[in-house]
Amino acid sequence: MFLEIKDVEKYYESGTTHTQVLNKVSVSIENGERCVILGPSGSGKSTLLNVIGGLDQVDSGTITIENKEISKLKSKELSLYRRDYVGFIFQFYNLIPNLTVRENIQVLEFLANNPLNIEELLDTLGLAEHKNKFPSQLSGGQQQRCAIARALVKNPKLLLCDEPTGALDYSTSIEMLILMEQINEKFGTTMLIVTHNTAIKDMVHKVIKIKDGRVVEDYRNDTLIPAKNLEW
Ligand SMILES: Nc1ncnc2c1ncn2[C@@H]1O[C@H](COP(=O)(O)OP(=O)(O)OP(=O)(O)O)[C@@H](O)[C@H]1O
């Protein structure tokens, strides 16, 4: 198994209140799977993504990736894990405004041990003709593609996406999902997508539903609907 999450618990303290955000969460994901995490607002989806990505620590339980227990790592090892293993895509693109598309991607290329070829990536993402533009000169969809390129250039084994289509209109969202499907197939990247868009569940191998910090549904799809045929 590529990723195993066992009995993970997470609490937040604020003043005198003590909130349990993840309650004995156990799920597993195979190498190369596309996976969606669904659930109501406040159910713990982003928190789960953040602990898997090493952006936050669990209070109990274990997270193991390729037999390496990341929930035990100290801060330095955790930042190496994030650098070498994980790509993040957030709803807000976090591009650097005074760098061009190509330069925004290059910043991450320099940090990687085994980066992908930037020109090929720009081609795959349909960004070749925009590579010398600044983020402010791009549409929302193009900015999101640039954010995806930044996450992918280091060739991460695990791509974590928090509401990747949250800020996009319908047709740009479909374009983005087609692209994610292509990336998963071309590079074999394992993907975890947190979303409110339930239509996405039909194009992924595995569906996890969370409510009040607990996994309430967890299944694999027998047949997949291609992203280009999704409707909502
Ligand atoms: N740093 C924090 N400190 C205190 N409470 C937090 C913190 N981060 C999240 N929470 C709380 O944890 C709960 C789960 O938050 P989380 O962001 O994981 O939910 P979500 O399912 O991703 O929600 P949404 O769909 O609205 O993004 C919420 O009640 C939230 O207020």
How does this model look, in words?
Keywords: ATP-binding, Nucleotide-binding, Transport. Belongs to the ABC transporter superfamily. GO terms for molecular function: ATP binding; ATP hydrolysis activity; transmembrane transporter activity. One of its GO terms (cellular component) is membrane protein complex. Residues 3-232 form the ABC transporter domain. This protein has 232 residues and is of the alpha/beta class. The chain has a single domain, classed as 3-Layer(aba) Sandwich (Rossmann fold), CATH 3.40.50.300. It is built from six helices and ten strands, in the order βββαββαβαααβαβββ. The protein has helices at residues 45-52, 75-85, 101-109, 118-124, 140-152, 170-187; strands at residues 3-14, 17-29, 34-38, 60-65, 68-69, 86-89, 158-162, 190-194, 206-211, 214-220. The chain has a six-stranded mixed beta sheet with strand order 6-7-8-3-9-10, sandwiched between helices. A hairpin with a 2-residue loop joins strand 9 (206-211) and strand 10 (214-220). Helix 3 packs parallel to helix 5 (140-152) and helix 5 runs parallel beside helix 6 (170-187). The longest helix has 18 residues, at 170-187. It is globular. The chain binds adenosine-5'-triphosphate. The site of adenosine-5'-triphosphate (ATP) has 11 residues, from strand 1 and helix 1.
